[in-house]
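Feature request disguised as a bug: please show the residue count (384) next to Cytochrome in the output. Example input:
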Amino acid sequence: MIQSYSPVTKTLHWLTALLMLSAFPLGLLANNAPFATSDEIASKALLFSLHKTIGVAAFLTALTRILWALTQTPPADLHPDRRLETFAAHLVHWLLYISMLLVPLTGWINHAASTGFAPIWWPFGQSLPLVPKSETVSALFSAGHWVFTKILLAAVALHIAGALKHAFIDRDETLRRMLPGKTPATAATNRSRAPMLAATALYSAAIALGVWLGQPDAQTDAKQLASVNSDWTVTDGALALTVTQFGSEVSGSFTDWTADISFDPATGTGTTDVNVNIASLSLGSVTAQALGPDFFDATNHHTAHFKATIAPQGDHFAATGTLTLKGKEHPLTLPFTLDITDGTALMAGQVTLNRLDFGIGETLPDETTLKYPVAINISLTASQ
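Example output, currently without the count:
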């Protein structure tokens, strides 16, 4: 004969419930919060940081609760004769156990794999071992987090409904066994593994659904830039940018751009004409925000254009010209290094832009949310 659940079990149960039920509305509010102005972005980031931080705390608490439960013998079922009801109750418990781990864990991995918005307020929270910074990984676990959250919501609702039924219809000791104080002793019994196997099967299907939802789109609606005829043909390259949001660097890149390059190695002079497909930007978890009307406004401004002359500048080179971005023109000098061997050129350059020069983020007139400087890094390999 054993008493009701131990004080440690009860404390972990109600603490887990408190954290989970706090994370749900915070996540909903954060997802639906607007982010058009500086204050709105700050509020949205605050909600997401609260949601993520509580989620990590919930994961650690749930893990502790489950490990503790493995060392305990639970009270016996009060109505073992009600086989279907008992099976359903244990199935819901197993779904809760699995969900309490997988829901926050998938959210945490999604955060660790992405770059950008809303940090976790834990000293160890931003990265995880064996989790790379990858949009594919982030999308996969984001989809899993979405699917598993629905299972957790359903399991919580059924769990609460069952507890209320026992309290107000059956009027038995089921709910009181998890409340402070002692209840009459009950015998321990061996429990069937069928509910655990059923919960595992349901979650296997949910994982498959999450993997399917997390697959990248096979096609994109963004039109690709047409290839250009150039004296030097770019065979490989990267056009990257780094912004600083809420004190953290967020890096991304444009995947579709062209460069028409005319260059004479003998004199070190030439010209370049670069076009960038704005819709090809990838900037971690803030990509959609960056492409929106307050920032790059990809819908109305499809391309950026940099036309410049190339000339030696000390021990390196510089492309000096005009950058047109979001309908605004601004003079720009891009210093770069150049190494030409056997008709193959390796070029690397970096320049810092002020986002306000191009009307980007004008609703964020100070640097509290988004810093003014934007670092641009370009590297390419070209053959003559």
